[in-house]
Amino acid sequence: MKKEKYNVAVVGATGAVGEQMREVLEERLFPVGELRLLASERSAGQFLEFRGKQIRVEVLKEYSFQGVDIALFSAGGSVSAKFAPIAVAAGSVVVDNTAHFRMEPDVPLVVPEVNAQEIARYKNRGIIANPNCSTIQMVVALKPIHDAARIRRVVVSTYQSVSGAGRMAMEELSQQVSALFNGREIKKRKFPHQIAFNCIPHIDVFLDGGYTKEELKMINETRKILGEPSLRMTATTVRVPVFCGHSESVNIETEKKLTAKDVKAILREAPGVLLCDEPEKNIYPMAIDAVGKDETLVGRIREDDSVPNGINLWVVADNLRKGAALNAVQIAEILIRDHL
Ligand code: NAP
Ligand code: 3JM
């Protein structure tokens, strides 16, 4: 018999993503029985609101998952590495927001608008991985184009907001702006350089070949989600002094010719996409407009005449919502509807 309510744990509940998890669960009327809010000793004892009630934040422990049906993890890779298997052993299904399990072949990597059918494979390990924020919004825009004309190559450059690096990173941008206006010395903790009034072409660590881990995440995750292991793709990921909302310049080449008009018609109907493309009225996607929205905004659609079948797009979404919490909750909704 189907349950009416599900006990949900949010691991990393006090973080930038964790906060959005509570908001999205409440907004979408997810049938939550008990909500367990878990974090480190640093913030245990704090109270956070959910559906008008104050819930006490508990320290994440081995026994935290007793009676939990669904555990939403966003407390970093090492926390997921240790505690996701513990949650699964206690009977929870884990939706993990970190990079830790994403590329494991038996763990489904899911964006519901793109590959919801993969959710059924949660049974392998009890874990479903949520992709990187920059990957999610891009594949929401690319999937319908891929279905119509087969994408052969992708070149993406990102303009990623500081909220993607967590709460402290947002604080760092605020403090640097204030310090610079007041003639004080700036402090650097989360970013290797001043982020205020700057762009830093460096997200996550540098790996082989001069790429950052964030760039390789985008490439590998896109291939896995689209089921195209040899898709030709390259990425440059850049941190910009925006608080929330990631923007991306995406250049694609397709097998079949599509005009800009064709692409607009495809994206107008695409699930999870909001077409914002009226340049004559100065309408195009912007981070400040994407914040708080569920959709991925797509605009600046035009043909790239430097190659036979080229198209340029500008893709923007709320990285804490569609890029993290909303995508995870959408996965959980399908899980309870079809599988639990
Ligand atoms: P954040 O604002 O820094 O929050 C981190 C959260 O993790 C806090 O609740 C923190 O609790 C908790 N935490 C840290 N270490 C812990 C430990 N040892 N045990 C228990 N809880 C611990 O970071 P965020 O932006 O929310 O991101 C969290 C994670 O989600 C990232 O590390 C990443 O893997 C993933 N993610 C983030 C995004 C994004 O756009 N931000 C997108 C996709 C995935 P305390 O309050 O106790 O410190
Ligand atoms: C977004 O493990 C960590 O410290 C988290 C690093 C991180 C990640 C990640 O690799 O899981 C910060 C922000 C992500 C992500 O979504 O890939």
What value does the average pLDDT take?
Answer: 98
> What is the beta-strand fraction?
15-25%
The shape, in one word, is globular
Q: Which strand order do you get reading across the main beta sheet?
A: 3-4-2-1-5-6-7
Give the C-alpha Rg.
20 Å
Q: Regions with pLDDT < 50 over 5+ consecutive residues? A: none
The structure class reads alpha/beta
Helix content: 25-40%
Report the order of strands and helices: EHEEEEHEHEHEHHEEHEHEEH
Distance between the termini: 9 Å
Structure description:
- With 340 residues, the chain is an alpha/beta fold.
- It is built from nine helices and 13 strands.
- A seven-stranded mixed sheet has the order 3-4-2-1-5-6-7, sandwiched between helices. The protein has a six-stranded mixed sheet with strand order 9-8-10-13-12-11.
- The mean pLDDT is 98.
- The structure holds NADP nicotinamide-adenine-dinucleotide phosphate (NAP) and 3-(2-carboxyethyl)benzene-1,2-dicarboxylic acid (3JM).
- The site of NADP nicotinamide-adenine-dinucleotide phosphate has 29 residues, from helix 1, helix 2, helix 5 and helix 9.
Topology diagram in text:
Layout: E1 6-11, H1 16-27, E2 32-39, E3 47-50, E4 53-59, E5 70-73, H2 77-89, E6 93-96, H3 112-115, E7 127-129, H4 133-149, E8 151-160, H5 167-181, H6 213-226, E9 232-239, E10 246-254, H7 260-268, E11 273-275, H8 287-290, E12 296-304, E13 310-317, H9 321-339
Parallel strand pairs: 1-2, 1-5, 2-4, 5-6, 6-7, 8-9, 11-12
Antiparallel strand pairs: 3-4, 8-10, 10-13, 12-13
The protein binds NADP nicotinamide-adenine-dinucleotide phosphate (NAP) and 3-(2-carboxyethyl)benzene-1,2-dicarboxylic acid.
The site of NADP nicotinamide-adenine-dinucleotide phosphate (NAP) has 29 residues, from helix 1, helix 2, helix 5 and helix 9.
